[in-house]
Amino acid sequence: MDHRTVIASLTSEERNRLTAKSDLAGLLQLAAHWGSIILLGWLIALRTPLWPLLVIPQGILIVFLFTLQHESVHRTPFRTQWLNDCVARVCSVLLVLPSDWFRYFHLAHHRFTQDPENDPELMSPKPETMQQYLVHLSGIPVWWSHIKTLAINASGRCSDTFVPAKGHRKVRSEAQMMIAVYVCMIAVSVYLETAVLVYIWILPALLGQPFLRIYLLAEHGRCPYVANMLENSRTTTTTWLVRKLAWNMPYHAEHHAYPSVPFYRLPEFHALIETQLRQTEDGYIRFHTKYIERIR
């Protein structure tokens, strides 16, 4: 049974319940995530005792805003559309990842998941050697890719095939606005003679990125190049804390099978289709242990 058959087997009541959106559920999760970042940032900025120990947790919280941005470009975390769009833009600044451009990129990824010819995620091959694996986990390639994308888009030279002609002006304006925001941040920091942004945002994000790479590699790494979303995407069993941090995206096969399901409905959808999943793993340590064994 493929994902289309599974969705078709749902009753109209089940589909309506699974795709129902809620501002309240999204805002509660948002308050927990953004609130934690603000709290840790404040403690780091005040140089409280043992503040260096907070830098990596702060970084993990920041880089995992990617999962929130991902959800927001689907416009599922909140019922109110402008709220989804505003949250996506805030995340885009913190992650140096333009949200309008990423929406085009990500919708193409959903349309052509694991299609070697058309899935834009496969433009950056998964690591096949230990050296490639370590470089991948470092996060250096992804930061370079984000910065390069921002510069290309701002210059009006975007040539990505997944960006339609009507979207070129939008992605150019978005990139230019983001660069303007960064220039203002730098100017204010220089004027105030403070490096606080380095300690509460830039350094933590650099140190936190490997944790996001570890998480993301499990979503499609070593999955077959087939059209069935229950087979080309992986659901990973993990702790409540990781699911909370990642906005329930460890239920990744479920998300690809039915992208209209908001993150807070994914556990219910998982319970309905668990027996149909073809790619699952019991934890991220186990996934990476197996991955490394195949590249030695």
From TrEMBL:
InterPro entries: FA_desaturase_dom, Rhizopine-oxygenase-like. The chain crosses the membrane at residues 24-44, 50-68, 179-202. Keywords: Membrane, Transmembrane, Transmembrane helix. One of its GO terms (molecular function) is sphingolipid delta-4 desaturase activity. CDD domains: Rhizopine-oxygenase-like. One of its GO terms (cellular component) is membrane. Residues 51-285 form the Fatty acid desaturase domain. The keyword Hydrolase does not apply. It comes from the Bacteria. The keyword Signal does not apply. GO terms for biological process: ceramide biosynthetic process. It holds the Pfam family FA_desaturase. PANTHER family: SPHINGOLIPID DELTA 4 DESATURASE/C-4 HYDROXYLASE PROTEIN DES2, SPHINGOLIPID DELTA(4)-DESATURASE DES1. This is Fatty acid desaturase.
